[in-house]
Each structure stands twice: as C-alpha cells, then as structure tokens.
Amino acid sequence: MSAIICKELCKTFHQGDQVITGLDHVSIEIDKGTFTCLSGPSGSGKTTLLNAMGGLDTPDSGEIRVGDVQLDQLSRAELADMRLHNIGFVFQAYNLIPVLTARENVEFVMQVQGVGKGDRRRRTDEVLAEVGLSGMEDRLPAQLSGGQQQRVAVARAIASKPKLVLADEPTANLDSKSAAELMALFVDLNVNRGITFVIATHDVRVMGYARRLISMRDGLIISDEAQQSHAMAV
Amino acid sequence: MNLPVTVVATLAWRNLWRNYRRTLIMLITIALGVWSMIFMTALMRGMVDEIVRNGLETLPGEVQIHAPDYRRDPSIVNSMAMPSGALLAALAEPPVIGWSGRVRVPAVISSERDSRGVTLLGVDPVAESNLGSAPDNIIEGRFLEGVDDKGVVIGASLARRLETKLGKRIVIMSQDPENNVADRGARIVGIYKARLPSTEDIFVYSGRSVIQKMLKIEGEVSEIAVTADDYRAVLDWYPAIASAAGPDVEVLPWTELDTYLSTMLRVQDGFALVFMVVIFLALSFGLVNTLVMAVFERVREIGLMQALGMRPGLILAQILLESLYLLFVGLGIGNITAYLSIKSLESGIDISGVAEGMEMMNMSPVLYPALEFSDMLMSTGVVICLGLLASLLPAWKASQLDPVKALAKN
C-alpha cells in the first residue's frame, strides 16, 4: 500500500535569466511504514521533492497523491489542513516557535487541530517522555540544546499521530551523538509505530538508517535501492 | 469549526512582548494620541459648551413659547396668556428646572440728555434667576426685587450713552395693543455689566406687572422661556411641552431659535471626529511600521506555522490580534490618563493670559474641559477601526507568505 505516489513531477526555478531544474519528470512511490532517505548534493532536488510531497510547494506539472488525497487539486487552505492532519514535519534548523515552551510547541499542532485540553496534555506528556524530555516541558527553546530542540520538533511532529513524517536534513545542526540519538528515535517510531519516514539528507550517517535510499542529482532520480534493515544498524 | 483561539491569542500576546522596547514606544505613542484626542476634545467641548450656555442665557432658555406670529412681528399685539392648565403642569415636570414668562417689546428710553431704542423686558426676577438669564454682574444698585418693582435696571454702556446714572429718572415709551403710546417714568435702581457692550445697550429690565400695566396687557406675556439641565437633550423633552402648550402657540427649541449656536455644536462634533482621525492617521504610521517589522522579523516562524498546518486566515487573525492588543492597552492607558487629567482640571484653566477678548466670543477667560463619555467611545472606535484597517496590510502579507520561501529565510 502506497503512502505517497508521485508521477512525472516537474519543477523549475528562475534565478535572474537562469532556469534551474528542481524536479525533472520524477516518479516515485513510497510504501506505508517504510523508512526512506532522499540523498544527493545541494541543488539535487531532494528538498524540492520533499516539499512537494508535503504540499508545501506546488510542482509545475505532474501528480502527487498522499494517502487518498491528490494534492494538486487542493487550495492553500486545504493543503494546510492536509498537512495539519496527515503529516509531521521535522526541519533542519529545529524550527520551534521561540515564544512557546517545549510543551506548548508540542501542543501547537494539536491546538490548531482543535484537540481538547485534557487529551492534548496527556498526549504531550507521552511524546515528550518518549523523546526523553520529561522534566523539560516548561523550558523555552532558547533554554534547550540543539539536540533537545530537535527532539521537541520530533515530539511535535508525532504528537498528533501522523502516518507520515517528512524530515529535511534533521541532523544538519547536530553533533554526532545527538544525531545518532535522533536517528535511533526515528527508527523506533518507524518500527514500533509504523510511521512512514521520508528524510532528505546528504549526511551519510543518516543514510545508513534507511531501508530505501533514493539518490538524486539535477532534479533526476539517479538510483533507487533497498538497503540493509535499519533496525540492524541501530 | 473549532477555532484554536487560545493558541492564536497566546502567540499574539507573547509576540507582542518579544521586542518590548518597540512595543513600549508604540504603546506610549498610542496612549499619548488617545490622551490628546480626548483631552483636546474635552477642551473644545468645554469651550463650545460655554459659548452655547452663554448664548442660551441671552436667548434665553432652551425652549421658547410664543404667539404664532411673534417671531415675524415681535410687537405687543403678538402677546399670549401666562401658562395654565396642562402647560403649567408640564413646566413643573423634570427635566425642566426653570421657566419664566416675560414681556419683551421694542421701546425708547429717554434720559434728560438723550434717547435710545432698546428692548424692554418685563420680568419676574426670581424666575429669571432660575433661568440664568438675569444680569449676574450688577455693578451699581440692585436688580429688581419682584414683578411689581417699578424701578428699571439698565446696562452700564446705555447709562454712559444716556449720560445718566443710578437714582436718576428716565422715561420709557412703547405702544399698547391699540397702537397708542404707552409710557411711564421710572427711576434707575441698578446698572449691570454684561460680557458684550451690545447687551448692555439693548436690554432694559423692569418688573413684569408694571410693564404689563403700562402696555395694558395685564396677565399676558411675549414669551415663555424654559430651561432644563442638559441643553443637548432638548429635542428629547421639548415635544412634551409643545404637546401640552397646544396648537395656539409656537413652541421652539433653541436649535431652531438660534441656528448659529446649533450649527456650532454640530461643527464641534464633526470637528472632534476629524481631529481624532487626523491624530490617528499620524499614529497609524508607527503602528504599521511596528507590525511590518514584527512580521519581517518572524517570516521564518510564520512559514513554519503554515508548514505545520496553520491556515492563512489564522496567521492573519494572529497579526490582527497583536495589533488589537497593542491598541487596547494603549487605549486603556490613554483613556485613564485623559480621565484623570481632565478631572484634575475640573475647576477650570485660566487662559486669560493667552486669550484676550474671549468675552467677544461669549466666553469666559476660564476654560472648563468637558469630558463626555461619547468622546471616549468615539476615540476608542476611531482607534480600533482605523488601527485594524492599518494592520490589515501587514497581516495579509504575513498570511500570504510562501512557506517554502519563508522557511528558507535566514
């Protein structure tokens, strides 16, 4: 069963007179419950593909289906709703809301979803414990280390129980230890919760955790191969 | 749809205080603007109130009752009976606080040296005092003591022109209803000073019964002047008086009797609104700048919230709410300081040193600021409406950010 289906995606960017190809007729299917890495150098199109899968960016042509929803037919507001209810995001630079505490950051998505206060609090306590941040609920992002902030971002991504998590260079700003801990957490969530992970990265440490590694260059998929089970790597 | 009000409200409030210096400066600016809107309006209102009140004392009254043709021909033939029955009962009801029936006819006054045309007023001195229309500055002698007082009270300027003085006799001449000359000699018992020399030249006071007898119109008067506690509310209560007076007389509020005064009042209300809008327009540049900066500094965060699934409408609401918080706090401070400063100046501001000749405008040299709740409400309305309007553009721009570009912003 596919979590994501992309068909013939094309996307170009204009930089002055120069036309840059972001995606060049990319077709791909991501199965549910898999752990996939999109790899490649900067400008290879991996982030563009990830953004298109998350409904953050609209391709010039082609089709994207996330679950049962065809993204190219949705309005801005509908895309926002789709992301809110179906996808968890983890970004490169932690991306927490600085005026909210760790707890409030995690609760943010659920609050926007309209989840009741009791459920929200219970769920937040659970996920913060799960990512190893019990006792740090009331700290502001500035009072947390980079690794801890990224854990809060992961807790926020999974708090509303999405079936799909999209992560863009999640370890880029982390030291080796924090990066390894974060990947172990991703693997655990993938194995035990069945959450589908798609991670865009050029970090070889991260690629080692993937069961499927898709390499990109100049907007094209240049290789797509299955790997050793990440559980073994962990 | 379950709107995430709490999270939007929390974010808006906390974001407001991220750059507390900028917020404080903006708050002080809004508070100062609101204070100046209310304070200056209170000063203007106090000034216009004074002009209107003084005008109504001269008119006199907030409502006048006349014979139907009196205003066209203010002569003795257009007299009417003193109030009785339903009208008398209506005049005893609140909000009426005083009324006076007066004889008012053109006359000639002659001293041993000169003659002048004047307006002769046959009055009841007690009722005139209640009405506030009796001369309040008797500089020599006394005012009339009753309706049967045979003496006359004239203005200081008229006394100079007639080359007469207190205690001297003068002759008053007018016409009775048969067009015969009606005259009598009388002694000057008082000389008054008015704000305007023209008032002193025109009005001559004598006891009502004495003048009625001289003019052979016993029991009749030229006009009935009525006053209440709030001249602005005259249109609310004067229909009851008109109804009680019946169709045989004409009952008019001061707004129709003196269109200059009523126009001035309307102009003042309009001017207050214009004044508030102008002040806020100056303020709005600061407000828009604050919000534009707040949005500019948080582009990445706004992109993040959009990426996480916050609808553009909620982003718009969040920025507008930030603006509303700023406006409400500024309004609160501005209203309170305006209230306190106006209350502390209730005893009046002496402007004689900087505003000579105020009496020419029917004003006293002491200015009494008049705080009206409606002015505070109007300034609040102006600030909220225009503030939200000014905030719409930065809020709209924030809501329309492209999440991918916003997230990529350093």
Describe the structure.
- The complex is a heterodimer of chains A (234) and B (410).
- By secondary structure, chain A is an alpha/beta fold.
- Helices cover 36% and strands 29% of the residues of chain A.
- Chain A has a 6-stranded mixed sheet with strand order 6-7-8-3-9-10, with helices on both faces.
- Chain A is globular and about 50 Å long.
- The model of chain A has no long low-confidence stretch (mean pLDDT 88).
- Chain B is α+β, with helices and mostly antiparallel strands and 410 residues long.
- Chain B has 2 domains: 5-55 and 262-408, no CATH class; 62-254, no CATH class.
- In chain B, the strands form 3 sheets. Chain B has a 6-stranded mixed beta barrel. In chain B, strands 2-10 form a two-stranded antiparallel ribbon.
- In chain B, helix 2 runs antiparallel to helix 10 and helix 10 (259-297) runs parallel beside helix 13 (373-399).
- The mean pLDDT of chain B is 87.
- The chains are: A alpha/beta (234), B alpha+beta (410).
- At the A-B interface, helix 2 and helix 3 of A face helix 1, helix 11, helix 12 and helix 14 of B.
Q: What's the helix and strand layout?
A:
The complex is a heterodimer of chains A (234) and B (410).
Chain A: E1 2-15, E2 18-31, E3 35-39, H1 46-53, E4 61-66, E5 69-70, H2 76-86, E6 87-90, H3 102-113, H4 117-130, H5 146-159, E7 164-168, H6 176-193, E8 196-201, H7 204-207, E9 212-217, E10 220-226, H8 230-233
Parallel strand pairs in A: 3-8, 3-9, 6-7, 7-8
Antiparallel strand pairs in A: 1-2, 1-4, 4-5, 9-10
Chain B: H1 5-16, H2 20-58, E1 63-66, E2 80-81, H3 85-91, E3 96-110, E4 115-123, H4 125-131, E5 138-141, E6 152-155, H5 156-162, E7 169-175, E8 181-192, H6 197-202, E9 203-207, H7 208-215, E10 220-221, E11 223-228, H8 234-245, E12 250-253, H9 254-257, H10 259-297, H11 299-308, H12 312-344, E13 349-350, E14 366-367, H13 373-399, H14 403-408
Parallel strand pairs in B: 4-9, 6-8
Antiparallel strand pairs in B: 1-11, 1-12, 2-10, 3-4, 3-7, 3-11, 5-8, 6-9, 7-8, 13-14
Helix pairs in contact in B: 1-12, 2-10, 2-12, 2-13, 3-8, 10-13, 12-13
